[in-house]
Amino acid sequence: MKSLSIGIPRLPSSLLSCMLRSHNTIRQLHAQTSPSHIPSPTPFVPDTKTFLSLIGRNLSQHAAKIPTWESLFSLKSMQLRKLGVEPARTRRYLLWWRDKFRKGEYGIGGDLQDVKDSVAHVRVVEVPADRSSRTLVGPDATKKLVVNAPPDVPINEPKLRALKPVHGLKVQGAHTIVGPFVEPVKGTGRSIATVKVQEGMWEQRRGEKIDGGERRKVQVRRKRKLEELRKARA
Q1: Span 79-109, pLDDT tens digits
Q2: Helix (H) or strand (E) holding 119
């Protein structure tokens, strides 16, 4: 008796070509967002030492162990452990901030472009309001923004008004710049200020553990209850 063979149906060439293109597109997208992607330094964060200093938790003490920007964004957790980055929660914190930086998610000052010697000047400018505001208030409506520019640039300079507002800073009242780590420049009525790289500017503070934290809370509270019962019986 002849054995029956079941043939595998062939896909149309057009469908096969479409599937291959989709596969290549997915691979390219994965490569762009891969954990191995090394982002470019920014004017506010030009090197490893500055990055470690900004994110805090005393990670700046490990700057000598991670000398290059490439190593900062390529070392794995086990490699960081061998270099002496301890404890494990510190390594997880570093990897977490590393991933955020890859995605362009910075702390205060991370988007500043005009930076000299780790110091950036910010100032208030008045620009035309968006269309909805002009409709409600009038065609000449304006709004005030905080932008990153040296203090010697004329206030009516067109390029000054084209700058993007600085993330995390805002104008309070007539011309006062407010926001974290802002230092007003004397004699400017607080309309010009500086933002300087400081230790722990981007640090995410650890929450205070209550009763030993989530993992030990039941055990700690049970021991406390038993101790209270023992004392009550004494």
Answers
A1: 999 999 999 999 999 999 999 999 999 999 9
A2: strand 119-128
HEC letters along 148-202: ECCCCCCCCCHHHHCCCCCCCCEEECCCEEECCCEEECCCCCCCEEEEECCCCCC
Dist CA 199 CA 84 (whole Å): 21
Q: Is the dihedral of CA 60, 62, 67, 73 positive or negative?
A: negative
Neighbouring-strand partners of residue 171: 177
- Specify the pTM: 0.70
Based on its alpha-carbon atoms, the radius of gyration of the chain, rounded to whole angstroms, reads 28
The tokens of 25 are what?
Answer: 């597109």
Q: Residue 196: which residues within 8 A CB-CB, separation 6 or more?
A: 118, 119, 120, 181, 183
